[in-house]
Amino acid sequence: MKSVNLIYGVKDKPGFWKTLLFAFQQVLAILAATIVVPVIINGSDAGVEAGAQMSQSAALVGAGLGTLVYLLFTKFKSPVFLGSSFAFIGSMCAAFGGAGAYVSLGYLGLILGAIFAGLVYVIIAIVVKFVGVKWIDKVMPATVIGPTVAVIGLSLSTNAIGDLFKGSVMTEVTNQVIKGGEIADAVSLVPTASPYIALLCGLVTLLTVVVCSVYGKKMLKMIPFVIGILAGYIVAAIFTVIGIASNNPELQIINFGLFANMSLVPDFTFIEAFKGISAVKDFNWGAFIVTIVVAYVPVAFVVFAEHLADHKNISSIIGEDLTQDPGLHRTLLGDGVGSMVGAFFGGCPNTTYGESVGCVAISGNASVVTIFATAIICIVAAFVAPFVTFLATIPSCVMGGVCVALYGFIAVSGLKMIQKVDLSQNHNLFTVSSVLIAGVGGMVVNIGAVTITSVACALILGIIVNVISGPAVKKEQAAKLENAQTEKE
Questions:
Q1: In angstroms, rounded to a whole number, what is the distance separating the alpha carbons of residues 372 and 185?
Q2: Model pLDDT for residues 297-354, shown as the tens digit of each residue
Q3: Which of 177, 226, 289, 456 falls between 20 and 30 A from 362, CA-CA?
């Protein structure tokens, strides 16, 4: 599996200052997704009803500590960062405020849910340890995993393009909606900036990344996202200053007002959970545990599919099969226990990040030391309010420009996995096409409180098609072999 073109391999150690710079680039790549999950929960109906104030800084600490746990379990052989998982947003809402009478547990529900989700990974890891991983290659060959990885990138494309047209300065807009059979006012936040000014900032970011990656010398080639984000941020800052000076909200891209409300110390989830522990008296634990299990456990199985796809992808990038060494059981344990730790501090279960994988691929830097430094920076930065606030002020359009490159590379990485697949065989053709259409088409299945994402649906459908059509291929190959032997005789 070797033959890869990396500037720094997994075991390589760039110099101290280079490592810091590369780690900062990883922080920028994973930042938006990691800190936006708490924001979504706080703004959800369940979060509002429960008075949720999940901390973005705490989410950074949770992601950093979860990644350190993952690195320890994988023996520092897998250059992947763990961040807040979007797949568990519905589960977190159920644990926080969507469980009716159980809302009083609040933050404690988030921790318990993450523990149950992590235990699913631990159980699967134990099974894999004793059964092995050969069954995975049979059930999920390149024709299944390749297009699934592509779907992960493509499914994120609408987020990237949507962000390209958004600034970060928001204004309240009131609309009338029908709620409970009655007309009510609904307040929503919309960007004040012109979408075309935001698009310009995003394109400056994207094109700077492209130019640095294609034409840059060794160092520029390795930090294209740092240069791209700085270029986009400077352009956005110029428009914002002009907009403030001329009192023109359409030019205001960056929300500098965030510096006025900086939180000096992260509000850790476990502290908030222990504050509300007194509410546990006379509590219906049985019903609550069932609610949490139903909300979290099925999603954990769904995220397992994404875990596998991400590790197949990073394995192809670094030229080493991580499911063999350090082993899928170790990556699962690292991911599962890392999720528990992440939720204990930040409330959000963690997952392996495609953004991090894309950053490794595009920069050519797979050094696990960089991932270690990224985790440390996230933990330390969470206590440096001005730094965290600066990161939070990076406008959506700038991050959208970066994500066009990152998500696109994830999609291309998946397609590269099927380069050598013979698509003239109907077995392969139908398997690949089923995964792509289900994933890109947004096939989502809701079963009660559980949502099976388009990525998981695509993977499951691909497995089914592969298993059903597989015997026909073996029959065809056996017939060809028999004909060849007959001709020799």
A1: 48
A2: 777 876 787 788 888 889 988 989 898 889 999 999 999 999 999 999 988 888 888 7
A3: 456
Selection from 136, 120, 41 nearest residue 86 by Cα: 41
- For residue 43, is pLDDT > 50? yes
Amino acid at 73: F
Handedness of CA 79, 303, 98, 109 (dihedral sign): negative
Is the model's pLDDT at 100 over the cut of 60? no
Beta strands in 429-477 (DSSP E): 445-447, 450-452
Structure tokens, 146? 């390749």
Q: Following DSSP, what letter does each residue of 358-398 receive, concatenated?
A: HHHHHHTB--HHHHHHHHHHHHHHTT-HHHHHHHHHS-HHH
Q: Which stretches of 54-106 are DSSP H helices?
A: 56-73, 89-96
| CA nearest neighbour of 9 among 458, 366, 397, 437 | 366
Give pLDDT, residue 67. Answer: 96
pLDDT tens across 159-207, in order? 889 889 988 887 766 665 565 556 665 556 677 888 999 999 999 999 9
Average of per-residue pLDDT values in the chain: 82
What DSSP string describes 278-330?
Answer: GGGTT--HHHHHHHHHHHHHHHHHHHHHHHHHHHHHHHHHHTS-TIIIIIHHH
At 230, list the tokens.
């700085």
